[in-house]
Design goal:
The protein has 635 residues and is of the alpha+beta class. Among the domains are: 127 residues, Winged helix-like DNA-binding domain superfamily/Winged helix DNA-binding domain (Arc Repressor Mutant, subunit A, Orthogonal Bundle); 138 residues, 3-Layer(aba) Sandwich (Rossmann fold), CATH 3.40.50.10610. The protein is built from 27 helices and 14 strands. β1 and β2 form a beta hairpin. The N terminus is likely disordered.
Length: 635
């Protein structure tokens, strides 16, 4: 039984052609398109991937008794078609021009039939054009029918047919990709967090496929609303393919349209739309990730297959709060935004006490609040561990919970074995988790394992190539490895990307000091101080640390005394900072006294005692050796 044209629809990208109504639709909305451009589109869709010659188009659309300039008419019709598809002749995504020959439809085509139709029902597209050509037409249609059946069978890989016919298909080489920010079609800027959240979730699901290198959100998000050609974006991110698409939300219904595009050719390899209730949003995300993995023939482990095939329903209100929390956590990166994000994560938990990812979000938030000094580490780190433990009790495959657990064990508990176990588990579960690689590199250099630390820092930068943090982190690792010149050059590169990146100025000040360039060191510290106003204690103590040893010691002591007085009024001492300042004045007894204070307060920089160049003048002192032993750092 053949399927009538009345039940036929053809989908490509975000578009749908309704052959019965003779309409082109985008996201379900009708796109105005005149008859001739529409008929050209249908003819191209009948032969996807094949050249439709100018002569064939002329024979179908411009009969012998039509008195028009054919070239002008065809060019005008093609131009109108491209305008409707938002396509371009220079960088075509749908209609490719072959000079003096004709045109070719480039994107994958999905032929939709009625709900009761099987693959055997599929017939070739029937042209809504005029005259048939007798038995030749019938033979041609029969042949096209067989071709269509074969195309569907190959596309759906029935019986492994695609692998047998095309064992080395054009998409088999894709080993890296980036998920570009999904476009929000709601028209409401307040909904940005939702589209960004969907982008992050799809990225995370794909990142868990070990056969793929997936670019981190920090780099991919920089192409939000960009006008750059896709091949240029792919080159800048060093990926084989990109995923782009749209998000439409109406009440509790969500529709995502995603397209997979080969970077080198800008050729569409796959496109599909998914629509679900918000409760089933995780299933939607994982279904899309699995479809992409299948299309590029990524080898999935049994665990990866199980992950992508499993998804629990979510509470819509809890999920909404979670996405808002992640949006704040990811986009603003300040103590205030971290605090606000924890409020949203807690709201999500209040709505759904079994929402594992909300607990992981809380663990992340408390970890950074402790490390940034916004909360006392003695308060923040135990909370971070408790939230990570709750997340893992609900879902022990959640890499985003293993990572903050590792950070808390490393920086606060000084549980070196436990921290490494958790870092490795996070990376095993999500090999493209850039932040886990970055944190692990910091653990490794603290242990004195510099070659491994540099490798992990490089891996973090590969996964997040446009991230200032990832570039700075590699420079930081090189500094601790005593590779000062390499660290110096990388810091300068970071400052070319952003002259106001405070961490790079801070690190440069340390590098210059180790190289004996005290004037340059002090200048960099002053630049850092100007970028971070309100840190008067650090500014005063830092100026002492970065002063030339032969300089005015009396002025340095005056600044240090002033810093001590101000900090005493605040009631929160920073032992590490004052220890460094006294050591700069060559007062080792006072430096060791303040290190003991840092030990009592469990200050996190003590994890660097074994390797930090700044402590080199104390390394032969038995009191310093005893402190390293008590911190528990391996010999």
């Amino acid at each position: 039984m053949q399927v009538s044209n009345r039940s036929r629809r053809v989908n490509f990208g975000v578009f749908e052609v309704d052959l019965r109504a003779g309409e082109l639709r985008k996201h379900g909305l009708k796109v105005k398109l005149q008859d001739q451009p529409f008929e050209i589109l249908v003819m191209l869709l009948e032969h996807p991937g094949e050249v439709v010659t100018r002569e064939e188009l002329r024979a179908k659309l411009w009969t012998k008794d039509t008195f028009v300039d054919f070239d002008v008419g065809l060019n005008t019709a093609i131009k109108k078609l491209r305008q409707a598809l938002n396509d371009s002749a220079e960088s075509p995504r749908f209609v490719e021009t072959l000079a003096r020959r004709g045109y070719r439809f480039m994107a994958p085509v999905d032929t939709a039939v009625g709900s009761d139709a099987s693959v055997e029902n599929v017939t070739p597209l029937q042209m809504p054009l005029a005259k048939k050509a007798g038995w030749r037409y019938s033979v041609a249609i029969a042949g096209l029918g067989l071709m269509a059946l074969l195309a569907v069978a190959i596309a759906r890989n029935m019986g492994g047919l695609r692998e047998r016919i095309m064992p080395n298909g054009s998409v088999g080489h894709i080993q890296s990709l980036a998920v570009l920010p999904l476009e929000d079609l709601s028209g409401d800027p307040a909904q940005d967090y939702f589209a960004d959240g969907m982008t992050d979730e799809l990225t995370t699901d794909l990142a868990q496929i070990s056969a793929l290198r997936v670019i981190s959100r920090t780099s991919a998000i920089q192409y939000k609303q960009t006008k750059k050609p896709l091949p240029q974006i792919a080159k800048e991110l060093n990926v084989d393919a990109v995923v782009e698409g749209t998000v439409v939300r109406a009440g509790n219904r969500v529709k995502i349209t995603a397209q997979l595009i080969e970077a080198s050719t800008d050729r569409h390899l796959w496109a599909r739309s998914y629509e679900r209730d918000v409760r089933d949003i995780i299933a939607l995300e994982r279904e899309a990730a699995q479809a992409i993995a299948t299309e590029i023939r990524a080898q999935l482990t049994p665990q990866e297959k199980e992950h992508l095939a499993s998804a629990q329903p979510v509470n819509p209100e809890a999920y909404e709060a979670y996405l808002q929390g992640r949006y704040l956590f990811n986009t603003q990166s300040t103590p205030d935004s971290f605090k606000k994000s924890t409020e949203y994560f807690q709201k999500a938990i209040d709505k759904d006490p079994k929402f594992a990812r909300a607990y992981a979000g809380l663990a992340d938030g408390y970890t950074l609040l402790g490390l940034w000094g916004a909360l006392p580490p003695s308060e923040a780190m135990p909370k971070a561990k408790a939230m990570a433990e709750k997340a893992l009790a609900l879902d022990d495959t959640l890499a985003e919970a293993h990572s903050p657990m590792a950070v808390a064990l490393f920086y606060y508990d000084w549980d070196w074995a436990g921290a490494e176990r958790e870092f490795k588990r996070a990376i095993q579960l999500n090999p493209s988790y850039g932040m886990a690689h970055l944190w692990y590199s910091r653990y490794l250099y603290a242990m004195g394992r510099f070659d491994e630390a540099i490798a992990e820092a490089n891996r973090a930068l590969e996964l997040d190539p446009l991230s200032l943090l990832a570039s700075w982190n590699l420079a930081n690792v090189l500094y601790f490895a005593r590779q000062y010149d390499r660290a110096l050059e990388l810091c300068r590169t970071v400052l070319k990307m952003d002259p106001n990146y405070e961490r790079a100025h801070h690190l440069l000040a340390q590098i210059y000091m180790q190289k004996g360039l005290y004037k340059e060191s002090r200048e960099e510290w002053q630049k850092r101080a100007a970028l971070v106003p309100g840190h008067r204690l650090w500014d005063l103590s830092g100026l002492v640390i970065h002063s030339e040893p032969s300089g005015d010691r009396q002025e340095a002591r005056r600044m240090l005394a002033q810093a001590l007085e101000e900090k005493t009024k605040e009631g929160d001492m920073h032992g590490i900072m004052f220890a460094h300042a006294y050591l700069a004045l060559d007062e080792k007894d006072q430096a060791l006294k303040w290190l003991e204070k840092a030990y009592e307060d469990h200050e996190w920089p003590l994890v660097q005692l074994k390797v930090a160049p700044g402590w080199d003048p104390l390394r032969s002192d038995p009191r310093f050796k005893d402190l390293v032993r008590r911190v528990g750092l391996p010999p």
